[in-house]
Amino acid sequence: MRPAIMEEVEALRGINSVKIKEASEAGKKVVGMYCVFSPQEIALAADAITVTLCGTKQEPIEAAEKELPRNLCPLIKSSYGFAVTDKCPYFHFSDVLLAETTCDGKKKMYELMGKIKPMHIMNLPQTSQGEEALAFWKNEMIRFKNYLEEQFNVEITDEKLSAAIKLMNRERSAMKRLHQLNAHKPAPMTGMDMMLSQWLKGFNVDKEAGIELIERVIKEIEEQMAKGVYAFDEKAPRILLTGCPIGSGSEKVLKILEESGASVVALENCTGYKGLDVMVDDTVDPITALAEKYLSTPCSCMTPNNGRLDLIKRLAEEYQVDGVVDLTWQACHTYNIESFTVKNFVKEQLNLPFLQIETDYSDSDAGQIKVRVEAFLETM
Amino acid sequence: MYSIGIDVGSVAAKAVIFDGRNIIAKEIMPTGWSPKESGIALYEKLIEAANINKSDIGAIVGTGYGRIALPFIDRKVTEITCHGKGAHYLDAGVRTVIDIGGQDSKVIRLDAEGNIVDFLMNDKCAAGTGRFLQVMAHALELDVSQLSEIGRGAEPQNINSMCTVFAESEVISLMAGGASKESIAAGLLQSVCKKTYSLVSKVGVENKVFFSGGVSKNPLLKEYLSEKLGVEILSSEFSQFLGAIGAAIIGYK
Predict the structure, then answer these.
(1) 10 Å Cβ neighbour count for B40?
(2) Which domains are seen in chain B, by residue range?
(3) Are B116 and A379 a contacting pair at CB < 8 A?
(4) What are B11-60's pLDDT values in tens digits?
(5) A198 Cβ neighbours under 8 A, 6+ residues apart
(6) Could you tell me which of A278, A303, A304 has the C-alpha nearest to residue A291?
(7) Which residues in chain B touch residue A374, judged by CB atoms under 8 angstroms apart?
(8) Which of A21, A139, B92, B135 is deepest in the core (most CB within 10 A)?
């Protein structure tokens, strides 16, 4: 049974797009972001609102393809398409954009997007290993801080940073506890509802209200669990979904998995658990703490990226997973190449079945994916 | 008691009756535009050919892309699992199944019990499938069944395009350049062989290897594959019925 409170979570979509308009018109500054590497705390410490920008729907891709190559990841095309068509309220009301040099496709797309709106680019090191990488990334934190101070004519003090770190840690901690509910066998939440809750948090204009709502979601689900009400029965194969980010509009593979009888219990991707695993250390200098936290993100744009394997292993055990599905967006080279490493790791080290699915946002291959997914589940 | 396996593919619908030990009847017909209607027609034809009573049928299992359209089946199982079971029934030593049908190709690795260890399917594209050969044969004014016969002994032309649409233009250019029909036919089968080889290489090949699906009816392609993979490739008169056989066996259990 679906928790009734999920309707309230879904309603955030409409509420947030109105709230962002009101906040912007009331003179609040808005910083639009795309990525889990974006240090929201710095923007919050500048008294700005942080929002995730749209990039999970098929519709604007056609418009993007007028300028971008067709053979490019759908997430990049969708993000750019939303920007050029001005169909994303969060993009529309953003005063500045924050972007990072993650993959090649994104960083070159950002050069074009930066012509539409003021954009700050944070240069990510190519590795998360070593002191030099951390020092470099720490300097990027300072550059972003200076940029916002200048743009918004504010001072970002350590006190404000510390307060923002505490707030974001509370949000992370709530989202993490929500995700961990599905470690229970059987899972109390569908993977679809989990994805939706995690995805929608990015658009929360009012962070406190968002945290409060998630606390209530957790409470309601715990009450259901106490009554023995779950989203799946004990026999449903438990799947860990890893790979490229997903959201509303790009949930095809997750949806097919659950329609075929699987219970997707862990979302290892960056729209799911990846960014929630590590908190920002609130006992040290805020800028250093932020640099450390964000650099620890196990993304495929880093080399090497062994942290992802460690995280998959941990989640597979904690969530009693029966199989791992790796989603790769077409033309996402980093995740696509890394899939071979993940496959070998999952099969040989974890002794679990593994399936990679390479696809885009369109529905044209839904039938084929269904065959693969069903066959994969039939092996369990 | 009998079980029926029915495999409605993109090009042909296949069905068999299994009595617990043997396949006692098999039927095949074109899928046509309606997988549902051809599925029903095939079912009736099969019952008639085997001369059995419907009340003696324990279970009907559907597979293939048209499986969802069949109203009379008890259960549906994917063609991947069914091909594994079917190959295992025909020869328990089979560890790799290469299946090339009308719209997709797949490689399936099996364990000693016929369970699936790993599998890989082609992307959403007709390259290297039966449809590809059909379109190309048409460009050569041949029937797809003639490609092997005509191509045998010829020096294969190099056809590099992976995409069916581009490959057709490539074939037309080769024809315009005076290349022989024989060498183009051989080249087309070689190109399917190369595409299949890259798919097989990702999953790995282990003896014995069974070649199934409509495209397995091309003896020259089978020889090319055998040479490229360095293994013997089995096939049988039941090759195209592998999915249906697997479905019937699953239904009997």
Answers:
(1) 17
(2) 2-124+195-252 (3.30.420.40)
(3) yes
(4) 899 999 999 999 999 999 999 999 999 999 999 999 999 999 999 999 99
(5) A175, A178, A179, A267, A271, A272
(6) A278
(7) 78
(8) B135
